[in-house]
Amino acid sequence: MADAAEIGLVLYPGVQMAAVLGMTDLFNSATELAGEKGRAGPTLVVSHWRLEDGAPVRIDASGAIDRASRPCVLVLPPALGDPIRREDAAPFAAWLRECHAAGIQLASICAGAFLLGETGLLTGRTITTNWVIAETFEMRFPDVHVDTDRLLNDDGDIFTAGGVMAWVDLGLKLIDRFLGPTIMLEIARQFVIDPPGREQRYYSTFSPRLLHGDAAILKVQHWLQASEAKEIGLDGLAAQAGLEARTFLRRFRKATGLTTTDYCQRLRVAKAQEMLQFTTRSVESVAVDVGYVDPGAFRKVFARIVGLTPGEYRKRFRS
């Protein structure tokens, strides 16, 4: 099929088959809709790939396709359980590097980023993954910057998507790219899902780095958590750590990836998210309770970190 754009889904150890099958249905539905509307241009063919005796094999395809052809995109779906081990990833990584060098776009979702990281192609890049596994990812791949606020990151040649269900967002992004925005929006309506534009930070809560190995900084982190970041003066924080102020600031930033101010703001906002979701207290009351005298300042900080105003957040997530 000369006018087919093939999207390959990679079946690696631990892959979440629910996501594989969900993406397959999403892409097939988009192709069927494009045909019904008489849209000119390429159709989408979805294929599944695995390694057999170290060689890549296309084991399934949704339409007729030249078996010697290559996919336009290879997607690494999310995984269940622990991230893929280096020794299990190695043969896949070698194949994925070859594919990338041949011009095939690569994409990962959630823990699929661990397999993509093993290719070495992410070095020096900014990617996204699930915030729950971000610290583990950063420890394994220290030369990759992780931005968990983003649901999708598009570098052109490499896509990364955040949480387990971000396959929906990546799928819509690829439908938009190959079949156009009209088909993408109609499929989003049919599947009752938000079109691209939402951000992962709407859903995440602050998950601080705790595995950095700096005991003095960890002590301060525990104290801030217990005190809900109510006392955040530099002298008091440095005293808790038993360090000189300048040394404390340097080590805190290195260990946590954040300044003390940003760290404390994120702790306070996380507490506010919980209160907005599970209580009926006013935004002004919540602001005071988490340590802000000025509700206006609280609203600005909340919107910067979460991407929604406190009122929008409550409307979207109230229990």
Write the layout of secondary structure elements.
Elements (H helix, E strand, L loop, with lengths): L3 E7 L6 H20 L6 E10 L2 E7 L11 E4 L9 H16 L3 E5 L2 H6 L8 E2 L6 H7 L4 E2 L5 E3 L3 E4 L5 H13 L1 H10 L24 H13 L6 H8 L3 H12 L3 H19 L4 H7 L5 H12 L3 H8 L2
Parallel strand pairs: 1-2, 1-4, 4-5, 5-9, 6-7
Antiparallel strand pairs: 2-3, 8-9
Helix pairs in contact: 1-5, 5-6, 7-8
Describe this structure in words.
Keywords: DNA-binding, Transcription, Transcription regulation. InterPro entries: Class_I_gatase-like, DJ-1/PfpI, Homeodomain-like_sf, HTH_AraC, HTH_AraC-typ_CS, INH-QAR. The chain has 319 residues and is of the alpha/beta class. The protein contains 13 helices and 9 strands. The strands form 2 sheets. The chain has a 7-stranded mixed β-sheet with strand order 3-2-1-4-5-9-8. The chain has a two-stranded parallel sheet with strand order 6-7. Helix 1 runs parallel beside helix 5 and helix 7 crosses helix 8. It is globular and about 70 Å long.
